[in-house]
Design brief:
The complex is a heterodimer of chains A (about 150) and B (about 160). Chain A is α+β, with helices and mostly antiparallel strands and about 150 residues long. Chain A has three helices and nine strands; from the N terminus they run ααββαβββββββ. By secondary structure, chain B is mainly α. In chain B, β2 and β3 form a beta hairpin. The chains are: A alpha+beta (about 150), B mainly alpha (about 160).
Chain lengths: ~150, ~160
């Protein structure tokens, strides 16, 4: 009887191990995304302390002297569900985690301006890392959207 | 005739069965030279012993010893066989339960570990697979220090 119990435990463990690695199990997962809306401008030097982790990367590419965090929002989304983040200037950022594999999370991003889609991109983000999307002009500067993703 | 009480019947029986120590055996044999009663007892035990041996021999010779042997061996084998070997005599080696348990634990732990702690891939922080803008231009940049991916687009 004791050996039969051991056998049942082994079979259960194997089935759990196999199922936890299947696409069906992965499909139930998702991503936690942090979206930071940054205003970058040339002017009096300023660095928002909440941007220290990404400031070095931005300053190595851009020549702006001021980086100010306008808004920050964290979204916990299952794969293939869309979350939205409002952006200044009548814009809206749509974020959809599509899936995850090989240590990267696939995202689909769209930026709408007055309900019109003006930009869209798909990318595979390294789990726990971030990407910055920028370009829209705003108040004598530009808007940057720093999107960090982590599988949940 | 008076019964001899020098040696008990048990000792005489042991003498017949050749189970007495050498010194006691010598003493009893010396006694047999002079004691008729004990000689009679020895003769009686010897006849009984011979009769028993003869009966046993006749029974054993009529038995199918190979069948008995195989039956006994099979019973011993079943008794000694582990759980899996009894039901999977060809497929399962010894200590298979422990081995399977170890493998199951390792596979499960590795699967859970890989899902919660994926191996960090090298390269840029993000691999851009597609971009679409209504007008203007799009640039994909990567910082030199931390491989941080930046997408820059211009609106109309």
């Amino acid at each position: 009887m004791r050996r039969l119990s051991i056998l049942i435990v082994i079979v259960t463990a194997l089935v759990m191990g196999i199922l936890s690695g299947t696409p069906e199990a992965a499909a139930e997962r998702g991503a936690v995304s942090r979206v930071r809306i940054i205003h970058a401008a040339s002017g009096p030097p300023y660095l928002d302390p909440r941007l220290r982790d990404v400031a070095g990367e931005l300053q190595s590419v851009f020549r702006y002297t001021s980086y100010r965090l306008l808004n920050e929002q964290t979204l916990s989304l299952a794969f293939n569900t869309t979350g939205t983040v409002p952006i200044p200037g009548g814009r809206l950022l749509e974020l959809t985690p599509v899936g995850g594999r090989q240590g990267r999370i696939e995202f689909r991003i769209a930026i709408l301006k007055n309900t019109v889609r003006v930009f869209a991109t798909d990318f595979r983000l390294r789990d726990g890392s971030s990407i910055t999307i920028g370009g829209p002009g705003f108040e004598k500067g530009f808007l940057l959207f720093n999107i960090e993703g982590r599988s949940r | 005739m008076k019964k001899c009480r020098t040696y008990t019947r048990e000792m005489i029986s042991r003498y017949v069965d050749n189970e007495l120590p050498q010194d006691l055996r010598r003493d009893l044999e010396a006694h047999l030279e002079i004691c008729r009663d004990c000689r009679t007892a020895v003769t009686g035990y010897t006849h009984i012993d011979a009769a028993v041996r003869h009966t046993l021999d006749s029974h054993v010779s009529s038995m199918d010893t190979s069948a008995i042997s195989s039956t006994v061996l099979e019973a011993v084998r079943k008794k000694k066989q582990p759980f899996f070997r009894r039901y999977f005599p060809n497929a399962m080696p010894g200590k298979i339960v422990l081995q399977l348990a170890s493998i199951a634990a390792i596979v499960t732990a590795a699967t859970v570990w890989n899902q919660d702690n994926p191996v960090m891939p090298a390269g840029p922080s993000a691999i851009v697979t597609s971009v679409a803008a209504d007008t203007g231009s799009v640039m994909v940049l990567e910082s030199a220090s931390g491989n941080h991916t930046i997408i820059w687009y211009t609106e109309s």
